[in-house]
Amino acid sequence: MEGKIRVNGLYFKLPPKPKKKDILFSDLKKKDQKWRRTEMPDTLSEETAANHSEFINKEFERRRGGVWFMNNGKPTYITGEHYYYLNWCKLDIGYPQYRDRDRRFFVFWEICKNDPECFGMVMVKHRREGASYKGAAMLLHEITSRYNSHGGIISKTGVDAKSLFTDKLVYMFRHLPFFFQPIIDGSDNPKSTLSFNAPGQKISKNYKKIVKSEALNSKIDWRNTKDNSYDSVKLVRYLCDEGGKWVDANVEKNWQVVRSCLTLGDKIIGKCFMPTTVNEMADSGGERFKNIWDDSSIEERDANGRTRSGMYSYFTPAYDGYEGFIDEYGMSVINTPTKEQARFIGKNIGAKEYLQNVREAYKKNTTKLSEEKRQRPFTVEEAFRSDSRHSPFDVERIYQQMDYNEESDGLIVKGDFIWKDGIKDTKVVWKPGSTGRWRISWLPPEERRNNIKMKGVKKCPGNDIEMVAGCDPYDHDTTTDGRRSDAACYVYKKFTMMDDFSNVFVCEYIARPPKAEMFYEDVLKTCVFYGCPILVENNKIGIIKYFERRGYYEYLMDRPESTHTDSSRKQKTKGIPSTGVAVLNAQTEAIASYVYDYIGILDLETMEMGRCYFNRLLDDWSRFEPDNRTKYDATVASSLALLAAQKHVTIKKVKKISINFIKKYNNSGLISKRI
Q1: In angstroms, what CA-CA distances link 336 with 79, 340, 342?
Q2: Which domain holds residue 547?
Q3: Where are the beta strands (DSSP E) in 223-357?
Q4: Is 376 within the bounds of a domain?
């Protein structure tokens, strides 16, 4: 698109390209065209400022509007904030070097700043990406250029927030040129607050004389890490560093507090930058940050045009901009380098192959491999991986399956199940579509679709020997962490002699329609299409009543024998309770057994892989906490499908799984061994 660039799914309108003579480095040969700092004239000082008014004005102009420069023959635009960071923000290792990855980052930040419905940017990063320095520069840029503004800093601990403030932000401020330094109140090396409150003097607009000036009445400070930090404070900028590593406070609750600090009525008056690497998902910090991340998708907005969190998510793979794999023009050497790039970086491989080689070295130590992927992720999913030591399931098998699924195309198709011609109780048909609520990996042959057996006037599922479903319905309750739960439903194809595609989940539904009955109807259509009975949790009676009212009561399964106690056998109710040790153990055991038998690498010689292609389900399994199951809708629904499948087949006995265990697998090799 002419005059626009696309970053992370959003467009940024470029300023008009200036005349060639006004593009930096256009007078150099192509090979010499690359980023260089604009040095301050040796003769420029506060005393001689009037003699250098043109230079100073130009720097203010570049800070506001950005610059165009020639980079290896290509006109390239960087934002004003990026220019400020590159040219004037000194780091502990000197001034930043130009990176094309950073160019895209600052463009995305500019998009967030310019969008009136955006609260800022939440970023998953890899180790040593320099996001904290960028965040400090972004705070300085904004707060030192406007009146009556407040910028706040918080990190995973108060000690970390103080370090970011003193070692990064204050250090940068002290090394800014004098014309970018507002007059401060107190020391230029503060420990808690950088205050621009003192009235003082400034150089007049034409730089001819010194005149009295108003104070900015602005400040930047840091706070200890608490749920309510910055409560009731009006903020223009908020740097929430390492939100995925909070342990002693709840980053979700804090964001709800701070969000109101960035608004005036319905108007967004401030922006947040929230960068982080992610702690082990077994820790609450990682889980809570992931909730914010999931709520920041630009694809999912409310009626006001805002994401659920209000922010926009941003991620770049670890191999993009990886140190040691940057050419002399700041471009990422991701794949095989050119001859010129190879000479410059001193390697004949790109960053992606290099990091893949590191992973290969950990292939026989899957615990270290998982940690490597989390620290230097290629995908967002890798960044949020769980620690295998804290799961009731063989997580390494799950990750093997997820990796395989990510590298394979066409395993899953999205779409909707609809009544033919819109007429209920006729036939359900499959309609593929990218916005569909269902994901499927297999459809039954035409003759087995909509297979209904009639027993008198009762409708019964015709494929009950072959297929079953499990459902975790929802009501209007919230989960234990205050979030509204989704509804989930899975269809499972059992073992049959008819074909070799068996013991596999074939259909996934995870959604939360605005009305519960819309969900009930969706589940009903799924069962009718596949001709399968369904096992539901009966603590939420709504779905049972709905099936009965619609004439499909016989599609509802009774409680499986394996989950009964002596007293429960006397109860004749459809579905299964959501509580009870027998039930919870049976559900956990069913998934653990299934993962061990059918997920990941099944045969080392042939490298045969499992056939569970639903990564949302696999991810839910990887993070599952038996003692806090309410937020794992997919896990609950899939476990019910597996329990339902046990009605007509014999599952080999496995060791009883305790709900409270932690370590169950030895993950020291390629194939984990059950303890």
Answers
A1: 30, 11, 9
A2: 413-599+634-653
A3: 237-240, 263-264, 267-268, 271-276, 311-315
A4: no
Q: What are phi and psi of 209, to 5 degrees?
A: -155, 165
Across 49-58, 435-444, 452-461, 623-632, least confident range: 623-632
Residue 88 lies inside a defined structural domain of this protein: yes
Residues 451 and 576 in one domain: yes
Instruction: Pick the more confident residue, 315 or 512.
Output: 315
Tens digit of each residue's pLDDT (9 = 90 or more) over 575-592: 888 877 878 888 999 999
What residues contact residue 640 under an 8 Å CB cut-off, 6+ apart?
Answer: 470, 471, 472, 535, 536, 537, 576, 587
Please state the domain count of the chain: 2
Hey, CA dihedral for 609, 615, 617, 622, is it positive or negative?
Answer: positive
Phi-psi region of 320 (alpha: psi -120 to 50; beta: other; left: phi over 0): beta
Greater confidence, 204 or 538?
A: 538
Whether residue 43 lies inside any domain: the answer is yes
Helix runs in 211-298, H state only: 251-261, 284-294
Average confidence (pLDDT) over 352-358: 96
Report the alpha-carbon distance of residue 180 to residue 29 in Å, rounded.
33
- Identify the CATH number of the domain in which residue 539 sits: 3.30.420
Beta-carbon neighbour count of residue 238 at 10 Å? 28
**Angle of helix 366-375 versus helix 351-361 axis, rounded to 10:** 150
Q: pLDDT at position 569, please?
A: 54
Last residue of a domain, one of 267, 283, 315: 315
Please report whether residue 303 resides in a domain. yes
DSSP 443-511: ---GGGTT-EEEETTEEEETTTTTEEEEEE---S-B-TTSPBPPEEEEEEE---SS-S--SEEEEEEEE
Residues 309 and 422 placed together within one structural domain of the fold: no
Asked if residue 188 lies in contact with residue 204, where contact means CB atoms within 8 angstroms, the answer is no
- Model confidence at 415, pLDDT cuts 50, 70, 90, reads very high
Which residue, of 276, 295, 315, is where some domain finishes? Answer: 315
Structure tokens at 159: 């000690």
Confidence label for 208 from pLDDT (cuts 50, 70 and 90): very low
Cα–Cα dist 502/500, whole Å: 6
Give residue 650's pLDDT: 38
Asked if 659 and 581 count as a contact pair (C-beta separation under 8 A), the reply is yes
Q: Beta strands 413-419 and 150-154: pairing type?
A: unpaired
* Residue-averaged pLDDT of the chain: 88
> pLDDT higher for 625 or 265?
265
CATH code where residue 299 lies: 3.40.50.300
